[in-house]
Amino acid sequence: MNSSTLIFVIAFLALFSYWFAMQRAVKVAGGKAKIKQLTSLPTQFGLLTAFWCGIPALIVLFFWSIFESGVIEGLLLNSLPEEVSLLSSNQLSLYLNDIQVMAASLLSNNLPMETSDPLKYNAAEYLNQMRSNSAWYKSALVLLVCLASVGYLVSQFTREFKARVKVEKIVAGILWFCSGIALLTTIGIVLSVLFESIQFFSAVPPWEFLFGTEWSPQIAMRTDQVAGSGAFGAIPLFAGTLLITLIAMLLSIPTGLMIAIYLSQYASERLRSIAKPMLEVLAGVPTVVYGFFAALTVAPLIRNLGEGLGLSVASESALAAGLVMGIMIIPFISSLSDDAINAVPLPLKEGSLGMGATKSETIKKVLLPAAIPGIVGAILLAVSRAIGETMIVVMAAGMAANLTANPLESVTTVTVQIVTLLTGDQEFDSPKTLAAFALGLMLFVTTLALNIIALKVVRKYREQYD
User: Fold this and answer.
1) Is residue 170 in some structural domain?
2) Residue 121, domain extent
3) What is the pTM of this model?
4) 265 and 392 share a domain?
5) Are 240 and 397 in contact, with CB atoms under 8 Å apart?
6) Which of 180, 302, 317, 418 could cross-link with 436 by S-S, CB 3.0 to 4.6 Å?
7) Are 325 and 414 part of one and the same domain?
8) What is the per-residue pLDDT across 410-424, written as a single tens digit (0 to 9) for each?
């Protein structure tokens, strides 16, 4: 059996062991009438047995899957003649790949023996045999672990058996394991980006990257070309990212807050039940659709209006990308801010109105200050979404690294350049490719700084209103 089939078998055995353990617990108690004499419920006996059946088997399957290919490859190399092991690493890799391809062809009966290299043919047959034996051994071991675990645990059942305590410990361990995976994943992402960024900064000085005003990462093929060594000044990218984000925030923050205030305090229940789902539908629209809208509708409209006013507007401008990005972000701010305002305790609002304050004064001086932690969180999410957006910028703002504060000109952002640098077959040993990781590191640092600022703001106002 393959690993996918084994997982289904393990799940079925866990369900069966759950039922079997419940029946066993009832029998240990002396019948259904004496269940109260057990220190734990029969369902807790069942859960514990299901865990004991599934978790050890999954652990065995996991480690077998990790080491299986390496062990089989080692045994295959030992079966080959000595001259094969003396090949270089690249030649040996190609040789083993030919054997694996031949083994797959043998399984599908598409490889006649007389048209094949006899040595590779025999090695392919041996490889298929080892894989078949490995599958049988794996299945037998996993099933044996399931049955042995269940048999041992069920033999320990007594009336005083503390199944509930053991189940809670297992659940706590599972939660700890999941938290550890999330933490290790974050650490792995940071270390991978940091390692590649260090390689980049060993070739390009950090001050040139952080304070340079020219971005041209293309490495020239000839030394007489302009910027033959490339230019990696990231200031134009940071400026373009901040410009588009600022335009988007200037549109989305006020509009989103006004929508949230209206829906939570002024709108009727019928209007709210219609308007809020419609706003949340906008949040689910793919960003490429917003990009088409920006490129085909908003950008030409801005260009035509600018020409009518005598202004020079680029066909792809920061203003077009920022406005459409702001429209995209409005549902995030409005929905989350609405939830934050509605979460304010009702006595605060009623107390303000009871003291003679008007509805607008209550909103400005009571509800909004009390809801500031949730509103700050919504704005932070919106800023992070704007900084990380790519498709709208590619389709509406362009890809030219232009250092300007004019929203009518074409600019690019950090995320667009990361995609550009990593598109296609790339070698991860040149400053051009490694620059993408340095840009990613800067995005990570920026997001971390935003989180720290938002956390301080939230803590300050929570101390005031708790």
Assistant:
1) no
2) 3-161
3) 0.70
4) yes
5) yes
6) 418
7) yes
8) 888 888 888 888 776
